[in-house]
Structures are given as structure tokens and as C-alpha cells.
Amino acid sequence: MGHLFVPGPVDVNEEVLAAQAQAMMPHRSDKFEEIFDRVSKGASKLFLTEHRVFITASSGTGLHEAAVRNLANESVLSCVNGAFAKRWHDVALSNGKKVDLLETGWDQPITPEIVSQALDGKNYEIIILVHNETSTGLVNPIKEIAAAVHEASPETLICIDAVSSLTGDRVEMDNWGLDMVLTSSQKALALPPGLGFAAVNDRAMARAETVDNRGWYFDFLRLEKHRIKDSTPATPAISLIYALDLQLRRIFEEGLDARFARHAAMAERVQTWALERKLALFAPEGYRSKTVTTIDNQLEIDVVELNAFLQEREMRIANGYGPLKNKTFRIGHMGELQLADIDELLLVMDEFLAR
Ligand code: PLP
Fold first, then answer.
1. How far, in Å, is the centroid of ligand 1 from the Cα of 351?
2. Which letter does DSSP use for residue 186 in this model?
3. Which of 61, 90, 160, 292 to mutate to test the pocket of ligand 1 (most atoms within 8 A of CB)?
4. 168 lines ligand 1 (CB under 6 A)
5. Could you tell me if 282 and 295 are in contact, meaning their C-beta atoms sit under 8 angstroms apart?
6. SS3 for 185?
7. Would you say 160 and 316 are in contact if contact means Cβ atoms under 8 Å apart?
8. By alpha-carbon position, which residue is closest to atom 12 of ligand 1?
């Protein structure tokens, strides 16, 4: 069977796909509420939090909007070193917030030092930043940044995009003191696209009570009112919830630590291979992603041709994203993929490079 080595949507296990085909049931029913209760509790474990997780019928970008709408009346510090952080910045602006931009080069991490400087003498309601930048394959040091925020500006809520890292790399919401962490279903969780997950702590819920114009669909207070009754304000994506129920069971069978280790091993294999082929990695050492590797295309490989070659073998990688298109290419190593799949891909990549 072929594989998608792209950073989402990724391969979904066949039984998980099939779980979606179960018959519908009313969502206002004991049976569905029992499933929703189970998946909600399971979702909290993925974020390593004791707090609630809202499961929404949306992709992750919807929760970018939820973060800025619910947690800030006005002031946002937005940290940008990649395309998805830039998107969150644009989302904040388009919701009328006053947004200050803290930007580094896309090949450089956001560091605790520059965050401390940006917070000095300011009183931002929230700071937004991306853990694992899917465009660049760069991981920002969230644990250390969070410690810097707690020190410099304890009232500022920390909102993290873990879209392409959750369950592929460690994100410890409670231990690191993160107030909101969001993700999507179609990345390391290895589900079809269409579910958003927002883990929100009590401090963030208290803030939401003080914020005007939170909107309707993603209003945390409305979501909470229904969540405590194992329900949602609007119709949930029932088929995807069936799939999530099974996938959570599979994830816990593997074990979160084993899952992190498998992703780390795949990242190591891809990154070592690239360096051995004298291909440069876009992200600096120490900040390289466990779920996606962005490789500088200094050999000027025709990425379209490479993908056509791979697709003859039912494999696919991803071109660079946005301004990095053709200048880089990306290998996704997340979700259901195993080391043996990575080895198979790299053999075919070698075959292409040797032509
Ligand atoms: N944030 C990151 C880091 C992403 O990689 C993506 C999508 O690739 C998004 C946000 C947007 O998520 P979605 O496509 O689920 O809206």
C-alpha cells in the first residue's frame, strides 16, 4: 500500500475510515452523549491536561479565530516565524484586534529572550504562537517561552497552535502552564480532516467571561454549557466522532510515549538521510520538527517531477509552502507511518536522485 508523506491530511487507518460509515444517531441521545463523553475525556489526555477540550466541527483555523475572539478584548502579541503563524496573525487582525507583531526570520526560532523583551512594560491579553511550524519544519521552544511569559507578564494568556505536533511531539499543557492549545484532526492524530480540538483551562474560561463579542459558533461559554452535558451547541460531525472514538483507543494502545518515540525516530531517519545526501535542512539544529522535515532544494530538484516519480509507487511528498514553494520540499513523517515506510520512501528518493 502506498503512503502520504505529506504534512496532512495524512493516511488514515482502514478501520478508522470504516468507523465513519456507521449509522447516524441523534446527537441529543444517551447513546451519542456516552460516546462524546468518552472522546472528550480521551482528548484531554492527548493534551496532558486536566482541563476541558472542546471538539468542534471545523478545521484548526476555526480555533485560531476562537482564541482571539474569546480571550482578547483588544491586545494580542503575535509571534510569527512561518506561514501558519502568519495566518493566525491575519485572523487576529481580521477580527479587529490590536495586534503587535514579533517576527523572526522563518529559519529562526522564537526564543524566550525576544518574547521577554516584547512583553516588557506591556500588558497583552494573549500571546499567540505556533509550536510546530508546518511550513518550515521548525519547532519553537514552547516550554521555555511559556516560562518567560509567566515571569514577564503573568496575566497574559498563552495560546498555542499544536496543529501539526499534537501526539507526534510532546505538548504538556498543564505542566508548561499553557492556557489554550489547539489542534486539527488531519495531522499527527491521523484522522480525516474536519475536527478541531481546543484545550482551554479555567483561567482562560474566566477571561472569556470578560470578553465582548465572542461570536456564536466558537463561543467558549456556550460550548462549555453544552460540553458539561456531553453535547455541542450545534450538530457535531458524528461520523468523525465515531472515527475519533476508535482512533483514541488505538493511540492509547500504542501509548503516548511510544508514539512520541516513533515520531522522533522517523524524524531522525529523514534528517540524517538528508544531511548524508548533502541536502541542507531549513530549520536549525535543536529546533527541528518531529513530524515534518523541510529540506532546502539547493540541488534544484524538480519537485513536481519527483512527486510524479513517487506517485508511480503510490507515494507522495509535499512541495514547499507559500514563498518556500520549489525552494524547499517537505517530507511528512506523522500519524500512522512507521520507520519501515520511511525507509521505503528514502530508497525511492535515492533512486530518483541517482537518475
Ligand atoms: N497551523 C498549522 C501549524 C498548520 O500546519 C495548519 C495546516 O496545515 C493550520 C494551522 C491550519 O489548520 P487547518 O487546515 O486544520 O485549518
1. 32
2. T
3. 61
4. no
5. yes
6. coil
7. no
8. 60
- Confirm or reject: Cβ of 134 under 6 Å from ligand 1: yes
Instruction: Tell me the H-state helices in 26-172.
Output: 30-46, 60-71, 83-94, 112-119, 142-152
pLDDT tier at 317, thresholds 50, 70, 90: very high
According to the model, what pLDDT value does residue 1 have?
59
* Cα 8 to middle of ligand 1, angstroms: 9
- Structural domains of the chain, with CATH: 3-9+255-353 (3.90.1150.10), 14-252 (3.40.640.10)
The residue whose CA has the least distance to atom 5 of ligand 1 is 134
What is this structure's pTM? 0.98
For 2-24, what is each residue's pLDDT tens digit? 799 999 999 999 999 999 999 99
- If you measure from the C-alpha of residue 31 to the centroid of ligand 1, how many angstroms do you get, rounded to a whole number? 32
What is the C-alpha separation between 49 and 161, in angstroms, rounded? Answer: 15
d(CA 131, CA 291): 12
Per the listing, cell 476562537 goes with 66
130 lines ligand 1 (CB under 6 A): yes
